[in-house]
Amino acid sequence: MSIPPEGEGADGGVSVFRTIPARAAAAVLSFMAFTTLAGCAAHRRGAAAAAGGPVSISAVDLEMASGPDVAKLAHRPGARAVLVNVWATWCEPCREEFPDILRVARQYRGDGLRVVLVSGDFPTEEPRVRQFLADHGVDFTTYLKSGKDMEFVNGIDSTWSGTLPATWVYDGKGIRRAFWGGKAGYDDLNTKIREVLGTSREDQAQ
Predict the structure, then answer these.
(1) Is the peptide bond before 77 cis (omega within 30 degrees of 0)?
(2) What is the largest CA-CA distance in the chain?
(3) Extents of the domains making up the chain
(4) How many other C-beta atoms lie within 10 A of the C-beta of residue 65?
């Protein structure tokens, strides 16, 4: 492990993939989904306004992706910085963080930032995922987790515990520059991405 995880499990992260036995995890997921449904509609309306307004469900481009698929997207040439965020509709910290992720995505899209959003929801929850993305005005390709949980986790980052939300920042060379295991705030995201974009610009000038 060349870079220790930064903020692992911090700020309300939800450990799901690695630390909870399968039967217990299923019970936790069911309980969390039930307890958060009531607040989803109001939260979506407020977040959509912050993100720039909703889009139609037909505009949502959602593709399946395994852990290795996500890793390839993070390391694919052509971007000056890459932001990878794994989230889920039932994860309250994920929903709270989402507007900040989108704010950063829109702020730096024209500066060479690639954003890879991956839902950790079950495939059976695809309609809910599409609705959530539409309500938040997501008009670019995003992804839905495929494969077994541990294969997905290790395929992205073997040092990741499986905590949601999880966010990585890579530079244009595919080197990991930051990781948050738990909710990442706008200020931290903004600072790190500006730093990575600035470094990439200096590398290109040399």
Answers:
(1) no
(2) 54
(3) 14-205
(4) 24
Q: What is the pTM of this model?
A: 0.77
Tell me the residue ranges of DSSP E strands in 11-102: 14-15, 62-65, 81-87
Phi and psi at 86, nearest 5°, equal: -105, 125
For 94, the token pair is 């994920």
For residue 17, give the nearest of 99, 85, 88 by alpha carbon: 88
CA dihedral 74, 81, 179, 36 (to 10 degrees): -80
Output phi, psi for 53, to 5 deg: 105, 150
Mean pLDDT for the stretch of residues 78-106: 97
Q: Regarding beta strands 81-87 and 62-65, do their DSSP bridges make them parallel or antiparallel, or are they unpaired?
A: unpaired
CATH class of 14-205: alpha beta
pLDDT at position 13 is: 73
Distance (Å, whole) CA 130 – CA 67 = 20
pLDDT, tens digit, for every residue of 123-156? 999 999 999 999 999 999 999 999 999 999 999 9
